[in-house]
Design brief:
- The longest helix has 14 residues.
- β11 and β12 form a beta hairpin.
- The protein has about 240 residues and is mainly beta.
- The protein has three helices and 14 strands.
- Strands 2, 4, 5, 6, 8 and 9 form a six-stranded mixed β-sheet that branches. The protein has a five-stranded antiparallel β-sheet with strand order 10-11-12-13-14. Strands 1-3-7 form a three-stranded antiparallel β-sheet, with no helix packed on it.
Length: about 240
């Protein structure tokens, strides 16, 4: 009865070997589950990734995905079981940047008892394609200033914010969303342009948004080639 409310029941701990992981690679480690004071039936152990996104009222937790990694087994009092795991980090997972957190969520389904869980913070690094685009923006003098996860057209999307080099481009900020696609990246680019002249009496800035496909061929040429295309896209929105 006490185990049913979490007293004297099993505990679960995911021991992560690589807390820094690139999109497309895998988080690896060992799940350690320790028996409590009574026999218990563990129906399954699940692993997944989770993040938070902004809502009108603040922030909400979002489970990016969850999957079973260990099938059912019986756990005796005081027994310790270990299960190695390898969990791929899929395309579309937010990057852990200022303003964004991603963590490994572990839970065990236990018959007739409160299910124990565990959370481990991760550092999610960009894919090679995303890294090339971010580096291209930095080569143009833009500084990555923050990020935010949003619920965008039925899916989670991350927006990266960049500050321009001082006195250049006549913009206050650019923002990018990156959507991995076969053969490259789909990019939504928003340019926040400072208002000048008479317009500055009524508003401080204008927003212009465009979308383009950054192909694998351009990405393969490296950040310099991508920077040229990005600069042309920015100027087209001014």
């Amino acid at each position: 009865m006490m185990a049913a409310v979490g007293v004297g029941g099993a505990s679960v701990d995911a021991q992560v070997q690589n807390t820094a992981v690139r999109i497309g690679e895998a988080v690896t480690g060992v799940i350690v589950i320790r028996g409590g004071a009574v026999d218990q039936r563990v129906e399954r152990i699940n692993l997944g990734l989770a993040t938070r996104y902004r809502t009108d009222d603040g922030y909400a937790t979002h489970q990016l995905f969850k999957q079973q990694v260990v099938p059912a087994f019986d756990l005796r009092p005081g027994e310790t079981r270990e299960f190695p795991f390898s969990l791929p980090v899929p395309a579309g997972t937010p990057l852990t940047l200022p303003g964004t957190q991603v963590w490994l969520a572990t839970d065990a389904d236990i018959a007739g008892a409160m299910d124990p869980g565990d959370q481990d913070q991760l550092q999610v690094l960009p894919s090679r394609e995303q890294e090339t685009l971010i580096t291209a923006a930095q080569q143009l003098g833009f500084t990555l200033s923050g990020s935010e996860v949003e619920y965008h057209h039925g899916q989670i999307a991350q927006e990266l914010s960049f500050r321009p080099p001082y006195g250049q481009y006549r913009v206050s900020e650019i923002e990018m969303m990156m959507f991995p696609q076969a053969g490259g990246l789909d990019v939504i680019l928003e340019v926040d342009r400072r208002a000048t002249g008479m317009a500055s009496l009524f508003t401080s800035e204008f927003e212009q948004r465009g979308r383009w496909h950054l192909g694998a061929g351009t990405l393969a040429q490296g950040p310099a080639a991508v920077a040229r295309e990005l600069e042309a896209r920015i100027r087209a929105l001014l």
